[in-house]
Write a structure and sequence with these properties.
Two copies of one chain form a homodimer. With 319 residues, chain A is α+β, with helices and mostly antiparallel strands. Helices cover 32% and strands 24% of the residues of chain A. Chain A contains nine helices and 13 strands. In chain A, strands 8-10-7-11-9-12-13 form a seven-stranded mixed β-sheet. In chain A, strands 1-2-3-6-4-5 form a six-stranded mixed β-sheet, covered by helices on one side. In chain A, α2 packs parallel to α3 and α5 crosses α8.
Chain lengths: 319, 319
């Protein structure tokens, strides 16, 4: 449980006692200590009209994404997914073809990552589609990568380009022509995010990662969680943010600000991590350095070409 | 995943591969084999307007029941609950007091059964409240009590009175006077069901239980699941069904049929099990024998005073 909408999370925390050997609210997954491996668990709810629109996403895409965003939470801990659980409430007009195509998209990503769907619940809904996915995973005992491990001097890395998903959402809402290559690319990054499972496992094996999480709300918001959990500050260089050619192109054509998209639009589901610089040479996929962990208040100092700038970002808000 | 609404479950099953060492769709919980203990998991979704009405249930009651019906699935396997996970989507008019009172009810039963709430998700909803609870538990390796273990000659037992919850729902919908003792009793059985965790664990320890599940849809439907999973038939004696004095009374006053309520209204969340007769002497709580497992088709023969009768029941349908 990580999103603090309407302050309810704090109220829940004040009503919860977490036993010895467990970790609850406040990271990408909960942790239940085991003898050999720890069990980790995360869950996310997706609602029609809030998280997706039936007019903008195919049922297969919604199925894919429902599983993907949960698998991404397992990746964020450096864990291995074990199984998923799907609850779905369907209004009568979605109980036939929509539901089956949804399951096909869900099954596609489940097969790709070798994660079985082991259970769930199906029910009728009066109006909107409601989906909840839970995912169970495992980590070597005590080795889950938390948000609280960032150390002064660590480099801040991300595993892929930022802002594509946000641009994809804007493109969908603006009905941009999907036959344009750059549009089609960012839309697919929005509808079919890639959970960085292998990358998370490889990063965990280096033993060097300080803090890690996945980027669901944008680094402006998400890095803030790491800084507060770790009690450190950060400097982020806007020029270092990895921006895809497609995002460069679409931002030029549409007059969108690539830095706002890359920092605040969210839903990229890349991994955001802190580690000594040399970690980048220990893995066989690109790690993009975007800044440094520094002493000081749990705030991001934004730099452009090395000079501090005023840069106001607002976290991603659902449409 | 156990409810087969609109045939989606079968479609999901046909798109799922369950690895060696796991058990998926088809029982009260999924099972993931471990070295010492097996991990079990179940999840249930509750929607406003489908599973509860804000005008008929207090937020505390909805919170209690959301956790209770999931804990009951752990009880149904003879397992011990480890942790729960709560996803909740709230429209703006439920984000303040309603949500906090919901959490208080949820926390109350969580404390009572010593089960921590370890995570979840909170989000906004456009209209209705949507709740999903997941519960993790554990069973001694290979000892989870399944629906498939009923043996010819077993006695069929239930752990408590049947039909109270269904009468409680009817009383709520008919706005019966809640100061009447019998009304207040059945309403509280509907709004605050008791998960039979200790009973399930004690029954598991006897080593004698063949099949077990919890009663969510009524025995007419639920016993059918055991019969189909086990490939056996059953005889159930209506006169043996445990009926509370409150249910007797309210049925007399209102002209309701106690047998229909006891067999088909559901949501009693008592345990339904099959075992040799002597199991009743091995536990320190009442076990009510209601019939026998017999050879033959996976159907229930209904008896009244030992004579077979025609008895049409329909499973519980949501309002």
């Amino acid at each position: 449980m990580k999103k603090g909408e309407f302050g309810l999370i704090d109220f829940i925390k004040s009503h919860t006692t977490v036993p010895e050997g467990m970790m609850g609210i406040g990271d990408d997954c909960a942790i239940i200590k085991g003898d050999v491996n720890d069990t980790i668990f995360s869950t996310d709810m997706l609602l029609e009209g809030v998280h997706f629109l039936r007019t903008k996403a195919s049922p297969e895409d919604v199925g894919w994404k429902s599983a993907a965003v949960n698998l991404s939470d397992i990746a964020a801990m450096g864990g291995e997914p074990t199984a998923t659980f799907l609850s779905i409430a369907l209004p009568s007009d979605a109980q036939g073809e929509w539901a089956e195509r949804f399951v096909e998209g869900y099954a596609e990503i489940s097969r790709l990552y070798g994660v079985p769907l082991l259970g769930g619940d199906t029910t009728s809904s009066l109006r909107d589609i409601a989906i909840n996915v839970g995912v169970m995973g495992s980590c070597e005992r005590g080795k889950a990568l938390l948000r609280s491990g960032a150390k002064v001097g660590d480099t801040i890395f991300v595993t892929g380009t930022l802002g594509d998903s946000g641009a994809g959402l804007k493109a969908l809402l603006a009905d941009l022509d999907n036959s344009r290559e750059e549009v089609s690319y960012v839309v697919s990054r929005h509808l079919r995010p890639t959970p960085r499972i292998e990358e998370g496992l490889a990063l965990s094996r280096t033993g060097l990662v300080g803090a890690m999480m996945d980027i669901s709300d944008g680094i402006a918001s998400d890095l803030g969680h790491i800084l507060r959990a770790s009690g450190v500050g950060a400097e982020v260089e806007l020029q270092s943010l990895p921006i895809s050619p497609a995002l460069e192109h679409i931002c030029q054509c549409e007059g969108w600000d690539k830095y706002t998209l890359a920092t605040a639009a969210g839903e990229d589901y890349e991994l955001l991590l802190t580690a000594p610089e040399e970690v980048a040479e220990m893995v066989d996929f690109p790690l993009h350095p975007i800044g440094k962990i520094v002493e000081g208040k749990a705030e991001i100092r934004w730099l452009k070409e090395g000079k501090e700038i005023e840069f106001n970002t607002k976290g991603f808000t659902h449409f």
